[in-house]
Structures are given as C-alpha cells and as structure tokens.
Design a protein that fits this description.
The structure holds two protein chains of two kinds. By secondary structure, chain A is of the alpha/beta class. Chain A has seven helices and nine strands, in the order E-E-E-H-E-E-H-E-H-H-H-H-E-H-E-E. In chain A, strand 1 and strand 2 form a beta hairpin. In chain A, helix 3 packs parallel to helix 6 and helix 6 packs parallel to helix 7. The relative contact order of chain A is 0.20. By secondary structure, chain B is mainly alpha-helical. The longest helix of chain B has 37 residues. In chain B, 43% of the residues are buried. The chains are: A alpha/beta, B mainly alpha. At the A-B interface, helix 2, strand 6, helix 3 and helix 6 of A face helix 6 and helix 7 of B.
C-alpha cells in the first residue's frame, strides 16, 4: 500500500546554506507521526516542502511523495489538484491563518464547496450552510450560527485555531499536517486543541503529521515521534 | 454628563459624520451635474445679461466678462469634473491594479523591470505627463485629458497595489488557501482584492481629487476641454483678468473645486471605516 507521505533524503537549502538535510521517513495510512525539534530546526519547512509550497529562494532536493505522487519539481498547476485532497495544513498562528475581512462561515465554506465539487457532489446554498455549521460544531465551537457570522478578530485565539482546523478538515485530506498548532495559545487552550485533533485522528481515517517545538501536553497525539536536530550550519 | 458619555460619543459619531459630510458634498455635485444634462438656467453660450454683473435674482452668482451666466457654467463644470474624476480614476485603477498584481506575482527580473518603469513614471509630475499626452494628441478634448490623467495616475496605483498585494501574499491564509487547493485567480478574487481594497479605495478618492484639480489646471492652460464646455479651470482662467472688479468669478469655481475634492476624500474615509470590519466593530 502506498504511504500517505514518503520523504526520501529530503534536503532544503537557502542558497548554499543547508536548512534540512537528508530527512527520510514515511507515514502509512492511519498512522500518526510527531516531528519534534527546537525553533529553526526546519519543521515548518519540511511541512511546506511536502506540499510544494516552499517560499521562493528555498530549493528542495531529494524526494517527497504525497500518496505516491512526487512533489519536488512538479509544477504548481499539477499540484493544485493534489492539495486539498491529498493534504491540508493547520498553521501555527491562528490570527494570520484566517482572512481578516471574511466571515468565518464563508471561509469554511470555501474549501468545503471545493472538495464537494471535486467529489462530483456540489454543495450550495442551504446545504452548504448546514455543512459549515456541522463542521463548526464538530470542532467543538460554541454557538456555530453566531461564529459563522463573526469575523476572525471577534474570536479568541483558541476559537480561531478551531476554525483553522475546521477549514483543514473541510478538505477531507488523506494527510493532515498540523504545524505547531498550539504554539501561539495558552496552556489550557493547547490541551483543548490537542484533544480536538486527537479526537479526530482517532475517530476517522485521518493521518496526522504533527510538528511541535515542545513535547505536547496531555495524551501524546503521536504514535511515533521524531526528534530533529538543529540543521548543521 | 458622565465621563463615559464624553468618551463614548466621538467613537460612535465620527465615522458616520465623516461619511455623511462626504455623501452630502459629493451628492450635491452629482445632483447639479445630472441636472445640468436636462436643465440649465441659461444657454451657456448666450449673453444672458450685462458684463460682470454681481449676484442678483436673475443671475445668482453674477455674469462673466462676456455677460454669460456664471451659475450655468459652474453647473456644467460640475458635470465635467465628475466625468474627468471618474474616468481618470477608472482608467488608472484598471491599468494600475492589473500592473501591480502582475508585478506582485512576477519573477524577480520582471518585477524589477516593472518597478523601475513605474518609478520613472512617478518621478514625472502628473500634470507634465498629462500635458505631454494632450499635446501629442491631435485635438485637445476632454477624452485625451481623461486618458492622459488615467495613465499618469496608474503608476501610483500600480506601485501601491504591488506592495499591498505582496504583504497579503505572505500571510498564512493565502498559504492555507493554496494547501486546500485554491487556484491563483480565485485567491486574487476572494482574498487579495478584498484585503487591499480598503487602502486602495482611499487612494482612489485622493486621486479623484487630484484628477479634478489636474483637469482644472489643464483647462487653465488651455489644454482641457475646448471652449463650449465650461470647465472650472477655464472659468478661473477667464475670471483672472477681472479678479479685482468681480472676485466672485474666481472664488465660485475655486470653492466648487475644493468642495468636490474634500467631499470625495471624506466619502472615502467614511466608506473605508464601513468596509473594514476590524474598524467598524468597536
């Protein structure tokens, strides 16, 4: 069975400086993996490289396969179809991860409608709205109707991160990458978010690849953990 | 009065007051401009009264040195100013936003080339570029002035769009949209344009004012709308010789010009406060 994500000797360089060197691991269906390391050790870059979204100026080498499709060196246009089906990401900073000028309901509806369209079961109007509210309720947001009408700045940090998770889950991805999803939050909220994420990865056939600076609190969400060293200078 | 009432009041009143002042000023010009299409007090080319008459019931703000009714000319001027402002900003916005987005998405060398070209364009005074384009076209008419001003304004819009779009492009929500499979055109339409719009719209209003003033300057120099069309700039220029005997001929078009420019700026300020939900919710 093809692994959901397979990295083989992945290296990321900025000019001549090596940021990530020869990283190899694979993630099978149903598996969870935690990537642990200090700031600047290349966790986020690995996540971005796996989706082909490295910022300009950084060059990847080696191989990263999403569900058997090579990502490194594949043009963006071809990857667009893969993104949001094979993979989705939850980002570190919940404030910048949401469009400040768009109501929450509309933001969540966006990936939801796209995924439904790809599945040849387009959602629109009332059905789409119901699906959005159901998804918001699923990530344990209180009063989904009110939250759907709100703008990001009207929510708390934890609520924003739940919305970001809802948006990633809306894609029904084969692989969910959570890039330090709790770093910007306080300890109590961190625990809640972990419960939210682990609940999901346990209940469904989700495949998580989590990265965190410190070992997560409470029930460790990862079945396996990898520690990354600071990249060699 | 309690201290709470004192501090609460301005926050609530300020945006709507600004917006209403803008709506009233601009609305007045729009009404007058529309009215001038269907009704004018006098034939703009006819000698309706004596020369340089003061305000009277027959001629509310007097007559010019040829005995033509000044109010009639000011009303036509409102219409011309609105057409010039809207036309120039529309051209400048279409051209500038397109170029700016192109530069924001372009590869390094194309971005640099565009930025250098825009810098050169910005380095020239708007009026000078407009004069060049008008002088280059065969006949001086309103449209050549509008196109010229539009091109001159587009450089600033492009520069602003480029930097605003670049700032939005690095945000996580753009990357998030990319990871969930959004295409670039869609991201531009639903994320980038709405997020740069509040800043752009205020700039468009500033440029509307600039365009109106620039057209008045062009007309003043004889490069604007040809004589049967009464632009405020030409009324000013014609009143120049008699400014000591009949000052109203110069003051009236000046006031009209200033009120429209201020009105548009107030309108944009008020609108931005309404568009931007982070400002509105307080």
């Amino acid at each position: 069975m093809t692994p959901v994500l397979a990295l083989d000797n992945l290296s990321i360089a900025a000019g001549s400086k090596l940021l990530v060197s020869n990283l190899s691991f694979s993630l099978a269906r149903g598996e969870r993996l935690g990537l642990i390391g200090e700031s600047g050790s290349g966790k986020s870059l690995t996540a971005l490289a796996a989706t082909g979204l490295l910022p300009a100026g950084l060059s990847p080498a080696g191989s990263a396969k999403l569900g058997g499709t090579e990502v490194i060196g594949t043009p963006n246009r071809a990857l667009d179809r893969l993104r949001g089906t094979a993979v989705a990401i939850v980002f570190q900073e919940p404030l910048t991860a949401l469009d400040p000028l768009m109501r929450i309901g509309k933001q969540v509806a966006e990936p939801l409608a796209r995924r439904a369209k790809r599945d040849d079961a387009p959602l629109s109007g009332a059905a789409l709205k119901q699906a959005v509210l159901a998804l918001l309720a699923e990530v344990a947001l209180p009063e989904p109707e009110r939250i759907a009408q709100a703008y990001p700045h009207e929510l708390s940090g934890g609520q924003r991160q739940r919305v970001a998770i809802a948006m990633a889950l809306a894609c029904k991805p084969d692989l969910l990458i959570a890039d330090e999803p709790t770093t910007a939050l306080d300890v109590t909220t961190q625990a809640e978010i972990w419960v939210c994420l682990t609940g999901w990865s346990a209940s469904a056939t989700w495949h998580c690849f989590l990265s965190a600076t410190t070992c997560p609190l409470s029930p460790t969400p990862s079945a396996r953990s990898w520690c990354s060293d600071r990249a060699r200078p | 009065m309690t201290p709470a009432a004192i501090t609460a009041a301005p926050d609530h009143c300020r945006p709507s007051l600004i917006l209403w002042a803008g709506i009233v000023l601009v609305g007045l010009h729009v009404l007058v401009g529309l009215l001038s299409l269907v009704w004018l007090p006098y034939d703009p080319t006819a000698m309706a009264g004596g020369r340089l008459e003061g305000p009277s019931l027959l001629h509310w703000i007097g007559t010019d040195r040829l005995g033509r009714d000044l109010l009639t000319h000011l009303m036509i001027g409102s219409r011309i100013a609105l057409i010039v402002g809207l036309g120039a900003v529309a051209i400048g916005a279409a051209l500038g936003v397109t170029l700016g987005l192109l530069a924001a998405f372009a590869s390094k060398w194309l971005d640099d080339a565009l930025a250098a070209t825009l810098d050169i364009l910005i380095a020239f005074p708007t009026l000078l570029i407009a004069m060049l384009v008008v002088a280059a076209s065969d006949t001086a008419n309103l449209w050549s002035a509008i196109i010229a001003l539009g091109i001159a304004l587009s450089a600033i819009v492009a520069r602003l769009t480029r930097i605003l779009a670049k700032r939005v492009l690095v945000m996580d929500y753009i990357t998030a949209a990319r990871t969930s499979g959004s295409s670039w055109p869609k991201i531009v339409a639903i994320h980038i344009l709405p997020n740069i719009w509040p800043t752009l719209s205020v700039n468009f209003a500033l440029q509307f004012g600039l365009a109106v003033i620039a057209e008045a300057s062009l007309s003043y120099l004889g490069l604007g709308a040809p004589p049967p069309n009464a632009s405020w700039g030409r009324i000013l220029q014609e009143a120049q010789g008699t400014v000591y005997t009949a000052p109203l001929g110069a003051i009236a078009p000046g006031l009209a010009l200033v009120s429209l420019a201020i009105g548009v700026n107030l309108l944009a300020d008020g609108l931005r406060d309404t568009i931007d939900p982070t400002r509105r919710a307080r």
